[in-house]
Amino acid sequence: MPRSPHWRAPLVAMLAAAIAAGSAYAITKLDPGKAYEQSLAAQSKPLFGFGHPLAGFATGSTDAPGAAAVEAAAGLKVQVASAKVGEDADMIALWPNDSNPAFAFICNEIDSTTAANLGKPTVQRVDLATGDVTDLITGTTSCDPIHRTAWGTLVFGEENGAVGRTYEIIDPMSLQGTPIITVDHTAGTTSDPAHVAVLKALGQLSFEGIVLLPDGTTYYSDELRPSNGKPGGGMYKFVPTTPFAGGGAITSLDQSPLRAGSVFVLRLGLRNGGTDFGQGSNTGAGKWVALATPANPTTFNLAATALAAGGYTGFYRPEDIDQDPLAWADGRVRFCWNNTGNDAQDNWGETLCLEDAPTAASGFPTGRRPVVEPFVIGNPQLRMPDNLDFQPGTGILYVLMDATTTAEGGTTNDSVWACLPDGADLDVLSDGCVRVLNSLDGVGEWSGIEFLGDGKSFLINHQHRTQDGRAVPETTDMLWVSGLALP
């Protein structure tokens, strides 16, 4: 959706006034960057669809539940959708669709293989009308991403180092939680293979960001940090042997396009025959490099396989990924993800975007030429970005922080930011970000944002609230944020 250019007017007027005055003092005192930030805040309603954004971080902590533990931008309404989800409720998948969801499926990011958590649920179904929760699956370690597919299933994954797996659920509304389905992570099996299957062909890594195209082509990343000169987390692409051709939901997991295919890893740097990849070559054009699938994909360590294949481009802990819906509507494959960084070491993190453009040139496996560009550069305010989601119809990207509370020499709680798409200016970056939500709980963390189809409201988890002595143990606040208008 195009935005009106009138938002630049205040900044232009200020600059013109200073120049016309001919005052060296006025020019040296003028801070164009600050003036621009003030202009964004002043025009938040036409630019972002809500009232005045929050001016800064919240500090301190509170035991208050629900909306009482949240500070929101003007005009936004915060309500509790459920206070019964797991203690580390993370990503959210709406069901049966984004437009009129009746249920939400969530990943609970705990290790249910330990003695303390044995049998605890790691996948749950939330009734959005009542807030009631049904426990469905256990046995996973750090269940993090969960997504609905075009062929009527759910895919979820584990943020579990080099041995994390992905799984697929068919007919998820038929699962009643009695008995709860158990996953055997090591063996790569489940107690109900007719309804829950291990996706061995996608390989093993620390899963968080996943984008599933309608034909089953899948992009995903490894939440790995660099170590002793080795690259951090890579970006991977799965191309199904039998793409999904449409025509309604599948009736058997054997029909899933994710059961078999080829895996590729991203390698940026095309100069000199593609040899200038490695540390320092983290943006620009590149190619997908094919990885050999082992005869027994039950053990398929993607990072080790990619290193053995000659290396790959690594990032600092890639997190959530979301597909750009406006680009998709324009026939383009573009998605953005967060590299969370480490704010305690002044590595603020960043948001990067990849466009996988078709090409007929030789030497490009999958027939695509990927290009990565920066979109949001982290800073002491917007730092350690984690989950993210595009607001439908606008191109505005919502970014959730997972910051170190005591970084920058103080106590600063997590925030949610809204970042404009890039306009017609000279750079390729977001045209600016404003603060939408603050956690008033010093140990609270935002996770799992998911917009409804009309773009006017979203679900989000306020995680880790149990650490503040909640009256009901092992719960997180799943919140419903509404009151947005499409700018």
Explain what the structure shows:
The protein has 487 residues and is mostly beta strands. It is built from seven helices and 28 strands. The chain folds into two domains: 1-42, no CATH class; 43-482, Neuraminidase. The chain has helices at residues 9-21, 24-29, 32-42, 44-48, 271-274, 302-308, 325-329; strands spanning 70-72, 77-85, 89-95, 103-108, 123-127, 133-138, 143-148, 153-158, 166-170, 181-184, 189-190, 196-198, 207-212, 218-222, 235-240, 261-268, 284-291, 318-323, 334-339, 350-358, 368-377, 385-390, 397-401, 415-419, 433-439, 445-451, 458-463, 476-482. Strands 13-14-15-16-17-21-20-19-18 form a nine-stranded antiparallel β-sheet. Helix 1 (9-21) runs antiparallel to helix 3. The radius of gyration is 22 Å and the shape is globular. The termini are close together.
Brief overview, please?
It is built from 7 helices and 28 strands. It has 487 residues and is mainly beta.
Which helices and strands, and how do they pair?
Layout: H1 9-21, H2 24-29, H3 32-42, H4 44-48, E1 70-72, E2 77-85, E3 89-95, E4 103-108, E5 123-127, E6 133-138, E7 143-148, E8 153-158, E9 166-170, E10 181-184, E11 189-190, E12 196-198, E13 207-212, E14 218-222, E15 235-240, E16 261-268, H5 271-274, E17 284-291, H6 302-308, E18 318-323, H7 325-329, E19 334-339, E20 350-358, E21 368-377, E22 385-390, E23 397-401, E24 415-419, E25 433-439, E26 445-451, E27 458-463, E28 476-482
Parallel strand pairs: 6-10
Antiparallel strand pairs: 1-25, 2-28, 3-4, 4-5, 5-6, 7-8, 8-9, 9-12, 10-11, 13-14, 14-15, 15-16, 16-17, 17-21, 18-19, 19-20, 20-21, 22-23, 23-24, 24-25, 26-27, 27-28
Helix pairs in contact: 1-3
